[in-house]
Each structure stands twice: as structure tokens, then as C-alpha cells.
Amino acid sequence: MSKLTNYAENLLADYVRGQGLSLASDWTVHLLTAVSDSSHTKCTGTGYAGQTVARSLAAWAGTQGAGTTLASTGTSHQTSNNGLIDFGTVGAGGWGTMVAIGLFNGTDLFAWADVDARALAESDDVSFAAGSVVFTLGLTGGLSDYFANKLIDLIWRAQAYSTPANLYAAYATTAPTNAGGGTEPSVGGYARVAIPSTLSGWGPTQGDLSTDPSSGTGGRISNRSAVIFPSPSADQGIATHTKLMDASTSGNLMLWRALTTPKTVASGGPAPRFDADALGITFA
Fold it and tell me: Is-above-0.85 flag for pTM?
């Protein structure tokens, strides 16, 4: 299982908030003896050194399968190493007990993948075959295939992508999936509502709804202002899900979730709304 650190969560959160994403051209890969969202310990010892793996299509697979060097078009939400990652032979005294392999953006741990714990003893050969170091983003739902593919190709494979100027809040009367869908009303004056992809549009991960950079530990950002849809002039059915899209009409599904309580949207009823902090995006 792969995981993001608090550092990575905050980078990605503020990327959605329009702040860009600063990543080195290469990852430095390290073996770790301990790791959590906020701390880590690298293996050490005679002959130990981190390994460099480029952020590129050649070095990391697309989501359609191990070994792919094309842009991601799959549904796995996964990437993996396309080549051998070879740490060589363990030197005198050993390197400690490896529990994870980590990707470093410069000196900062960005993400790690757990491995079976293994004591690295003198003369052991340590390497990871192509396809064996796997990182996953949001496979279980909520993050669309489209957005997962864009993020994986941006983060691991250095393919340009910019978040849209706005994310558009929508509600749906049928369930979306990661592939898309989720039927929106077509009557009663329904329209999506724009949330700017800015510090003013989304509050930071520390949860205070400020315009400060993210520095929290939960990976969640949320809308700073209430999202208010047009008052319905015709029955629109029962809203069961909410979605974030990248355009005011049509466009691509970015994120989605089920409403805690489905809501009947009836003609003449109050304008559907999400209060401030009600629409959250969580990176973990």
C-alpha cells in the first residue's frame, strides 16, 4: 500500500488551490527503517546510497499497466517502476531493517510504499524488479479516473497539467463512478456553481478556512464560501451525490461523493446549497 506524507498532501492541496506544484526532475529513492505521515528514518550503513529515478514516461508506468510508457488512460489509479531499482550489495554491519521504500522530492519525503520487513544483512543484494514498486491514488472512489490519470502523469511522469481555473460544483440524482456519470437535473433552472481554484476559493488543510498556505496534517481542503445553486422552478428529483467538474457544462468529472442525506429538490423549494466547509477534498 502506498501513502502520501503530510508534505505531499499539502503540496497537492495547494496545487488544487492554484499554487502550482514544485517537483524535482528526478526522485531520490531511499530504503526506510521507519516511516509515518510526518517522519521517517532512512537505512544507513557501509555502501548505502539512495537511488535516482527520473520523473518520466520511460521510468514510471501509465495506469493501463506495468511497463507502459504512453500517457495514462487506464482505470487502475496506479503507477510502478518501469526499470530495476538497484541498491547494490549491503556493506559491513548491515543497513538495518527495511520496512518501506520512499520517494524523495529533494530532501522531503513525498510518498512511500510499504514492503515486507526485511533485515538487510551484510552481503545481501537489494533491488526492486520492474513493476514491483507500486503507488496508487484514490482507487476506492471519489477521485475520477480522469483526474487520477492527470495527477499520476504529472507527479510521477512529469507530464504537464494545470488545474482548471474553477472547479464546478454539481449535484446528481444517480451515482457517478470513477469513470464518470452521475445524472444532473436538466430542468428547473439547474446550473453548476463555480468554485475558484484559488486560495480564496478553498481553505487550507489546517481547517481554518483562511487563505494561508496549507500546513495541516489531515490533507483536507474545503470551500470557503457557501455554494448556492439556483432555486428550482421544476421538480428535479432526489439529489444523492455531489460532483466537482472541470467545466460549467459537459467537461470532465474530477471528484465525487455520496451525500450524507439525499435531498428532494422540488419546484418552489429552497435553493440547494452547500455551506462553507461542506465540500471537502482530502488527499491521503
Answer: yes
Position of cell 520492474? 130
- DSSP-assigned states of every residue in 28-83: EEEEEEEE-SS-EEE--STT---EEEESSTTTB--TT-TT--SPP--SS-EEEBSS
CA–CA separation, 42 and 47 (whole Å)? 13
Place of cell 492554484: 18
Note whether 223 and 259 are same-domain residues: yes
Which residue type occupies 123? Answer: S
Domain count of the chain?
2
In a domain, 113, yes or no: yes
Contact 65, 130 (CB under 8 A): no
Same domain, 42 and 118: yes
Q: How far apart are CA 125 and CA 47, in angstroms?
A: 12
Cα separation, 46 vs 127, in Å, equals: 16
Give pLDDT, residue 1: 54
Work out the percent of the chain whose per-residue pLDDT is above 70. 100
Residue with cell 430542468: 187
Provide the residue range defining the domain that includes 200: 166-282
Question: Do 243 and 188 share a structural domain?
Answer: yes
Whether 98 and 190 share a structural domain = no
Q: Which regions of the chain are under pLDDT 70?
A: 1
Cell of 266: 422540488
Domain's final residue, options 104, 139, 174: 139
Asked if 130 and 172 sit in the same domain, the reply is: no
Q: Grid coordinates 510518498 are at which residue?
A: 111
- Secondary structure of residue 3 in the 3-state scheme: strand
Q: Report how far apart, in Å, the C-alpha atoms of 17 and of each of 86, 166, 194, 196, 212 are.
A: 37, 10, 13, 8, 11
